[in-house]
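Below: protein 1.
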Amino acid sequence: MKYLSSRGGMAPVTFSEILLEGLAPDGGLAVPESYPQIGLAQLESWKDLSYSQLAFEVLKHFATDIPESDLKALTAKTYTKAVYGSEEITPIRELFDGLSVLELSNGPTLAFKDMAMQLLGNLFEYQLARVNQELNILGATSGDTGSAAEYAMRGKKGVRVFMLSPAGKMSAFQRAQMYSLQDPNIVNIAVEGLFDDCQDIVKSVSEDLEFKQRQKIGTVNSINWGRISAQVVYYFNAYIQVIKKSAKKMGDPVSFAVPSGNFGNVLAGHIARMMGLPIRKLVVATNENNVLDEFFRTGVYRPRKSAETYITSSPSMDISKASNFERFVYDLLGRDPVALKSLWDGLAKDGYFDLSQDARFKEVEAKYGFQSGSSSHADRLKTIQEVYKRTGTLIDTHTADGVKVARQFIEPGVPMVVLETALAVKFAETIEEAVGISPPVPEAFIGIEALPQKVVNMPISVEQVKNLISNATGL
């Protein structure tokens, strides 16, 4: 398997070559030359595999240049009961009315980002040792990516992490998870802006190819293909679980609803579907920042400016520029890099593009299964209340957005699985507002908000971030 740039300006490269990279040299994103195809017979043969075994079976199609024995050892090292709390790794929890929740938040930082980030940490350490290299990870987070990356990379040989986050825009628990880390290879940077400003800084630094090469800059944001491929695994795992727990048979459809900000999580579902997994619908659930919902309803993609981006109670989705969206549009345009680059050049010039009259967009549901909806703070509160009343369990604010939107698209006889974003404790203030009680705090995190915090405060400045990295590395 080789990888190209979505904009056509990169010669084919291997999985290992893109693993340590962010943007492609031409500003595009790495995409596989083709999607591997998984037939029903192969899917049937996977039904009794452990999560780590299934991860190996899926990932070996993408990481073809890593020896299979090494890849198998890496997945076995990553997906363990010791790290995720159960042999199932990602159990499915029934809700009501045909809905269930895929638990993705049982990892070290209580968020779905751990599912890919723990593997990425082990892959990075493995690859850096192979090539005798160091790596400076530059990332941006709206809440959960940062802590997942830092917990995955702390103590890893040859790796430093520089993580940008929007000052004052995350929950107190999210800030404490990141800023309380004292490891010398972890540097937190609080930017006086929004997540999109942080993401723009990361992209600007990545586009300075001389600086990127000299400082050995890599990324763990969802544009990293290693993360996307690891997320594909849990769609296969969820599908197999649903089929085994119901009267369904392999090949029967299952739908997924995915709380969406940067589009990486639902993109992994799109890839699984393109590989042949029988996914009926991929429901994109947004909050008040409904750029993606607007596109799937109208064909118009119009990222908002920082001043137009709402600060909400599901802050990890307070994103108006969905980095991974380019990969889906590349598929939508027939995997034509010239057409994609032209569209993105127009986006940079005009601030939007309109595919409403394009015949390919009109097939977006029939061909790709996408539907969408949005949720508000009031919706969030109501959904959290109802789930708690009917099941006795607490869901976080983002998962509540997913449940609320999913209910609009349930079909008789087709299971609907909502992807969990995080545990409720990460957004305790809103949970208390909804149901009047504080969510339980896992033992490992009791008192975390009272710990000393280490963070560098900074204005929106590409140059200041570059200077910080240069001073830290001495290069």
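Below: protein 2.
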Amino acid sequence: MDTKLIKCDTIPEGVPALYMAAKGSDIRVPALSDSETEYVKSRIERGDDLIILSRLGLYTCVVVNDCSKPVAEQLESTRRMSAKILQVVKEHEHPVIAAVDLVNDPELISALVEGLLLVNYRFDKYVTRKERKEFFPDEISIYCPYLNDDDITRLRSVCEAVYLARDLVNEPLSHLNASGLADRLRDMGAHAGFEVEVMNKQKLESLKMGGLLAVNKGSVDPPTFSVMEWKPENPINDKPVVLAGKGVVYDTGGLSLKPTSKSMDYMKCDMAGAATVAGVLYTVASCRLPLHVIGLIPATDNRPDGNAIVPGDIITMYDGTTVEVLNTDAEGRLLLGDALSWAKQYDPALVIDIATLTGSAQAAIGTQGMVAMHRDAAAWYSLLEESGYHTHERTVLFPLWDEYFEMIRSDVADIKNIGGREAGTITAGKFLEHFISYPWIHLDIAGPAFLHTAETYRTKGGTGTGVRLLADFLFRYAMKGKK
């Protein structure tokens, strides 16, 4: 993301402008004449929420906010204006535009800029014949009396992190295997300032990381386990927050082979959880957040090669648990089980895992949210839920009743990696719960992580779902800790 965000102390003149106005207020747009102002007011009275005026190569967009709606709805409707505004921005090709707050609401003007930046994302690095280079301004000047430099830094870093996460998800296996993912994480760490340690296959074998190694048995490429850490000098948390992301860089389903149409053909996205964790660490470090945060990414592809695990195999996980593998396409929980066991050594305040774990989650709630479960983390989840509404990356809480564990008991091992036909998302959560001993939240992003059709600023392909949610959550946690 190359566009600069500049904070202005006065309203910019002589450049195209996006004005944030409020419905029902006395609209006073500095760049407009009296007759233009009356025209804008008449359009607002008709119910329009976006008015575009163009003259002599410059344009003015007036975005009208309905203050009577809940704050979360105001923010999301503002972000969703971005697709229409982008058309005007691209048409006029002005290198600098201004975003002007007329309602004294830094969250609204930030949402406007955020939506515009995110809707502009394109993954076209492998398109060799581009008819014309996609235009986007080099600079967005932001005028808002209540927005400070830290707010601008946070806004930019979060959008950059979403771009990075989307890029990782959209990369095909031919250009991003487990080792390649680890290299990208090292690059992100070097740029943002967090530490990255990568454990290779030999190290994982010495640790007996059985879940990750089992999934990797059918691959010609070695697995990796990346540990990312941001630890400032004086963090406000005595115990770290640990994030674990599923890093299956491509999932055929193994010998439990997936069908192709809208299943295996886009399974490069099965490392979306890993991409999210990487993006969050990038944001936290870029903004120098005073929190100790650790990211864990177990990574491999899942293929049906000659030595691949088969249904009926019994494996031993990192913590010594034996697992009867009845479906090799339920592999993500094997990676995460090892990662969650590994997390115990940090004595964490909270662990959040995030993964494209089950098709059942998408079947349950579609692409509009993510399934959540938690254990001993009610206060944490309440804060996360606030962030979900604020960022419109919402969570739906599913139960973890004890009866569900009976569905994954095995006759020949400690547990099995699938339950029955029913409650597939929950039994996957119960499997993960077996490996924890700390406050824990599980997020299943199978629905929103990858879209076949764009939804305004959630672009087609990888969406970077979870980056904005978890970044907002950690910023809120840091602010509460400072009080």
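Residues 48 and 92 are 22 Å apart (CA to CA).
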